[in-house]
Amino acid sequence: MNYAGLVWANLGRNKLRSGLTFGAVSLAIMLVVFLLTMPAGLDALLNSIASNTRVSVHNKAGIVYSIPFAYVRKVRLVDGVAGAVGTTWFGGAYEEEGRVTFPNFAVEAEHVGLVYPDYGIAPNHLEDFRRYRDGAIVGRQTMRRYGWKVGDRITLKSTAWAVNLDLRIVGEIPIERSPVVWIQRDYLDEALIAQRGQGLGIVHVIWVRVADPNRVDEVMRTIDDMFRNSEAETASETEKSFFGSFFGSLKGFMTIVLLVTLLVAICVVVIAANTASMSIRERGSEIAVFKALGFPRRIVFAVLLAESAVLCTAAGLLGVGLAYGFTYALRTFAAVIPSLGPLGSFLITPSVALQGIFLSLFVGFVAGLVPAWGAARKPLVEALHEIF
Amino acid sequence: MLPISYSVKNLGSRPLRTGMTVTVVALVVVATSLFLGLISSLRRTLVSTGHPLNLVVMRKGSDNDGASALSQAAYQAIRFYDGIARNAADQPLVSPELVVQPFFWTREGGRENVLVRGVELVALEVHDQVRIVAGRMFVPSAGEAIVGKSLVGRYQGTSLGSELRFGRGTWKVVGVFEAAGSSFESEVWVDVRELANDAKRPLPYSGIRLRANSEADLWTLKERIEADPRYALQAERETDYYAKQAESANSLYVLVVAIAVFSGIGAGFGAANTMYAAVQSRVAEIGTLRALGFSKRAILAAFELEAFLVAVSGFCVGAVAAEVLATSVGQWLRGVAFGAATFTTNVVQLQITGRDLLVSFFLTTALGILAGLGPAVRAARLPPIEALRRG
To answer: What is the largest CA-CA distance in chain B?
Structure first.
């Protein structure tokens, strides 16, 4: 006897019911998977952008508090530092959007290559960035969003410094989700001197690359000690912890998202359990006959349980697929409608997809367990009694 | 027509099945209400900030006052423009302000950017939403600060009487203020000169808030400020300014609607399932009713009513659970931090409003009626003779 065939036949018995359950479970799994991508997406994002050997040095009071530009040179001299670049928030807005839609910073062109070797920027792009004062290097995400390519000319209006800069794109940061735009510090400096007679003078964050991963803590300590009791005390932290704290302010929101996810998951269990118990109760007489024919309890139990597990897992697979489709659609829309912004960055990681599938399998088991056990355990005589 | 009590009694005939369906509906209600509540709390906090007769004056091109800067000269010039309201002492209601976003440390040791606003005493008159509810206003140049209600207890040193460290200095908290639930409640206010010193700002102010005499004056002032070639400024009605900041929540809106719709459809499948089963198990009964002369329409109505009742009970249970959950989550998290477009943390008090509940009510009842439709139609269409025989 082929038990798989039996399970399959049972599922087809009440097609409407199986279909409705299938639909409910797959939609719910889709939601759970989608909601789980938010925290998981942030983690993945953090791991993809942040490194443990790159260190941020910023004012202890906050990132909007500046540090004197002279500090950058001092940091470069610290033993163990492979490269350091001072970055200053430029806050440039593109065209008529009037607001900042991608992070953009003034950097020292000759030093970015030393600090960001992992970005994989083409050497000739870096070379051009050093060579052209009005050069700009643009992250791939922003390139795509505005349809820019290397060689294009753009104008950014700074919301932070009240200058407009005409730029030529000389290179790309070849990282899929990098929105960052770098411009030359000297170029901004000149524009500011022309306008107000005074250059930039400050940086917001000094990014430092430490050559030896084992010396990161030591280098951070040396830097902070160096500026203790100075006009701008510094606080150093790894890039991972720096970006992690940005996401920290989303923690409350994430808690609610996870709470809702949990509710949705419970919802699925209830729906599936309801269905399983209905379909088993309906087939009481049949199961009795089955047992009377001599099928042992464990087979009856397994067949009934498998029915619910198969249904839920299949629905889970569809749900994961739907979630893929949904995030794909969001990404597509977000590329066109900027106000959707962060929604476009949701990506379903394989681990979240697996979690979704396991969850659906689990739901199937939990839902089928009690009714299947009840049916298998019911004494034969009693079950037959109900028929006649 | 079948009596209403028929539908009500049917609900009780299979308590487990009804209970499960009600639970599913209730869970959907909790999920949607929580999300809707979060969004509307966020919008309320951001949008309800500002006075319709106030103007926000910033440097041209700035999208928020954290990114703006303007000079003492600009402030002195604007201060004496016509059309600005005056207080009892005949002082113009013009508030020069400086905002910075230093690190604050949460009690758990986390780090958040909180907006600190340097103001003069006149600010309390320009922002008349703001009321001191405990302690007193700070004394200028005394190293004192007042903190918004939402911050109290959330960060180290933000309660009345304690020492608050941010920027380069230490401040004494001498007052707590309320601002009608607006985002001012997520701010700390200190003396503008002290803050400028602390932040070492080259330009003293980031913006000016001023109160116009009337709506007409407001627009005239806006034109005059923006036309002045010396300073390159822009002016925006304060309420519009905050409404624009609130747009950062738009993407969340899209998300919530999508989640609500999908979970609604999912729960609808579940509910329809139960209803179909209910019809199936009562085939004989329906046949009898038809044989007794009840019309198709009466049967349809009775089953629809049943579905509706399930949805309404689910809603009631869910609404209560959502309120309880929102309150306890709010207590637990001490407000939900939300990083707005301006790089600062807004502490949003999670609250589910009547409107949020109304939206979930319509969603669930529509869901119940739709889910019941198929089974109800099937019940009504059963040929009486066959139904009797099958039973």
So the answer is: 95
